[in-house]
Design goal:
Keywords: ATP-binding, Coiled coil, Kinase, Nucleotide-binding, Transferase. The longest helix has about 60 residues. The strands form three sheets. The protein has a six-stranded antiparallel β-sheet with strand order 1-2-3-4-6-5. About 20% of the residues are buried. The chain contains 24 helices and eleven strands. It folds into five domains: about 90 residues, no CATH class; about 100 residues, Phosphorylase Kinase, domain 1; about 170 residues, Orthogonal Bundle (Transferase(Phosphotransferase), domain 1), CATH 1.10.510.10; about 100 residues, Helix Hairpins; about 50 residues. With about 650 residues, it is an alpha+beta fold.
């Protein structure tokens, strides 16, 4: 069908054809749905659309080109209430990072994007400039309105000064936590009635986002991946309980971040408390946390300790395996199940150890529930395996550092030798030229006599004559012609390499998992990341190493690598590093599989056909010109009155006029 006939099929509820504005909205919805199909973009859309519109937006499906399924979305958007439209516009302004002069500043931090909003405040991505030469750094900044927090205080007194002091004490606790599996806090201050907490920005997603994504794909975590996440949370929790005597009190999957290197970070210590004094047991009474992860003591309003975090961690471990919390239902049934400790058993091909750990941590009796050290003893086989993996990775990194140090030493010595060789060469030429310039002995006359033929030849050269006499002779380096090679434009080669990488990352998702494409996508993100300057990366140097096939290892950790050429693959997801040569081989393999060079060869065939047509035209013209010259000679031969010389001149004039440019 033609576009006009398909447009006539798009009608509104009255049967009238849709207008241009409605069609434009449908086209925009189709474009946004294509963008939403990329998983890393989905968090933005949850904030942009109302829940009902967002649900229908998802139901359209991935990569649907027909406009008809987007007509209900256009109608639903058109029928939104003014309040809902205002919220959509506000959400659109929050996620819009290019704000020009409208960009909001909080002290030295420029607010870029809203990352999330909760009951007490919001979290923004902010940018701080570190002087003129050090560049900019991105952080996450939490904004807590003091008035809103004081309205939720247990005492009922809205004393903003007292609440601010309490929040500052909590910030002091958070700033004392220094652990690789806990988000690092950077700064905190009060500004215009708000408390701001600045912390490191984790480029990744929450554990809840990962679980929702797996549920949508109808997949599950492998047990190895579950243990890798769980052990890192246990390390962070043990540091809090045993070293800093801090109880988190709000441990949920949404407060566990996983960055691009699969490092787990514990976040959101807004409800955390620290033990005061020398008591050996931490006890609390306030009802806090998320109800799905609250322990029976909190549900029954009893005194609880750090073992409340153990219960929450058991719920998280269960949800990581089953993709749903262990306790669900209406509030009354939910409270009853939590107090009694009744939950459905874990299904699937998981070990007895995992089921045993969940059962022990979800023990209703807090006295029988293990603490974090007892949990570590239960999972000691898993911890030993993780320790062995970390030990091997550390040994490999030390070997790589040693090799890189030796390679840099070799480069340094080689550069020093080359520098000394150049200095010796110039010094030798100056010594050789000094006697001829200053001595008046017969040897000097011989040196001058030897230079005379050389100078005469130099002066007779047309190139030297064009340059003029102002050029003075200087010491020169003699280079063998065998060492001279053609110079290619480095900018074109680098841009061509960059085009290949971007071409691969812009390809539509494939039906099968491609480890090579994942590696290239990860390298591209690291190449253009704002943290690239931390690694000392330079775009030109990185692409040049790819072009030359350097065997130097790339300074970033990759996950599972594709099967190697000798058949030795990696069976588990562990941090591994590859060389630029291997990455370049993966790039060429993906380009070949996706038909990249077939497209370029087709374009080259078109160009060569045009050139061949031009060549044939030039050859025909040359043959015609030669025939014309022969004919002019034959015509001028019988003439003896001197007019014969005019014919070739006429032919030459015709050739000059008709000569192709």
């Amino acid at each position: 069908s033609t576009p006009e006939s398909r447009r006539q099929m798009l009608v509104d509820e009255t049967g009238a054809p849709l207008g241009d504005a409605q069609l434009l909205a449908m086209h925009l919805f189709r474009t946004l749905r294509f963008v939403f199909s990329m998983e890393r973009n989905r968090k933005v859309f949850r904030r942009l659309f109302p829940p009902d519109l967002f649900a229908n937006f998802i139901d359209v499906g991935h990569y649907v080109e027909d406009l008809l399924p987007y007509a209900p979305l256009e109608k639903q958007l058109r029928n939104l209430t003014p309040e809902a439209k205002t919220k959509v516009l506000e959400a659109l302004d929050d996620i819009h990072m290019v704000k020009d002069d409208r960009q909001r500043h909080v002290r030295e931090y420029a607010v870029q994007e809203l990352l999330g909003r909760g009951g007490f405040g919001s979290v923004y991505q902010v940018k701080k400039r570190n002087g003129e030469t050090l560049g900019e750094t991105l952080y996450a900044m939490k904004e807590l309105p003091i008035e809103a927090v004081s309205s939720f205080s247990n005492s009922g007194e809205r004393n903003e000064v007292r609440v601010a002091e309490q929040l500052q004490r909590e910030v002091h606790i958070l700033s004392s936590l220094q652990h690789p599996n806990i988000i690092q806090y950077v700064d905190s201050f009060q500004h215009e009635g708000n408390l701001y907490i600045v912390m490191e920005l984790v480029e990744g997603a929450t554990l809840l986002d990962h679980l929702n994504s797996l549920a949508e794909k109808k997949q599950k975590f492998s047990e190895t991946r579950i243990w890798q996440i769980f052990t890192q949370v246990c390390l962070a929790l043990r540091y809090c309980h045993k070293t800093k005597h801090v109880v988190h009190r709000d441990l949920t999957p949404s407060n566990i971040m996983i960055n691009e290197d699969q490092v787990v970070k514990l976040a959101d210590f807004g409800l955390a408390r620290q033990r005061l004094g020398t008591n050996s047991v931490m006890q609390f009474e306030s009802v806090v946390g998320t109800v799905f992860y609250q322990c029976p003591e909190i549900i029954q309003h009893e005194i609880y300790s750090e073992k409340a975090d153990i219960w929450s961690l058991g719920c998280i471990l269960y949800q990581t395996a089953e993709l749903r919390p262990p306790f669900e239902g209406n509030p009354l049934a939910l409270a009853s199940r939590i107090v009694e400790g009744h939950f459905a058993p874990i299904q699937g091909d998981y070990s007895d150890l995992l089921k045993q750990v969940v059962s022990r941590m979800l023990t209703p009796n807090p006295d029988a529930r293990p603490d974090i050290d007892e949990v570590a003893r239960i999972i000691s086989p898993v911890l030993l395996g993780e320790l062995d993996r970390v030990s091997h990775a550390a040994h490999k990194l030390r070997a790589e550092v040693r090799d890189e140090r030796e390679q840099r030493q070799r480069y340094k010595h080689e550069a020093l030798r080359n520098k000394e060789a150049v200095h010796r060469l110039f010094a030798k030429q100056k010594v050789d030229a000094a006697p001829c310039a200053s001595s008046t002995t017969p040897s000097a006359h011989r040196c001058g006599a030897l230079r005379e033929p050389r100078e005469a030849a130099r002066e007779s050269s047309p190139l030297i004559k064009r340059q003029g006499a102002r050029e003075t002779r200087s010491p020169m380096l003699s280079i063998s012609p065998n060492r001279i090679r053609e110079i290619h434009d480095p900018c074109s080669r680098i841009l061509n390499q960059l085009h290949k990488i971007l071409f691969i990352t812009q390809l539509p998702p494939s039906t099968e998992l491609s480890v090579e494409r994942q590696l290239i996508e990860k390298y591209k993100r690291a190449l253009f990341s704002h943290r690239s300057h931390y690694h000392g990366w330079n775009l030109k140097d990185e692409l040049n190493k790819l072009l030359t096939g350097s065997r130097e290892h790339i300074d970033m950790a990759f996950g599972v690598l594709p099967q190697s050429a000798d058949g030795a693959g990696t069976g588990e997801a562990q941090k591994q590093r590859i060389s630029y040569e291997e990455l370049q081989r993966f790039i060429e393999q993906v380009l070949s599989d996706t038909g990249y060079y077939n497209l370029r060869s087709a374009d080259a065939d078109v160009v060569s056909a045009e050139l061949s047509d031009s060549g044939r035209s030039t050859a025909n013209f040359s043959r015609s010109r030669e025939a014309m010259r022969k004919r002019s000679v034959s015509l001028s031969a019988p003439l003896a009155d001197g007019r014969a010389t005019d014919a070739p001149r006429s032919v030459d004039a015709m050739q000059r006029i008709a000569r192709p440019t």
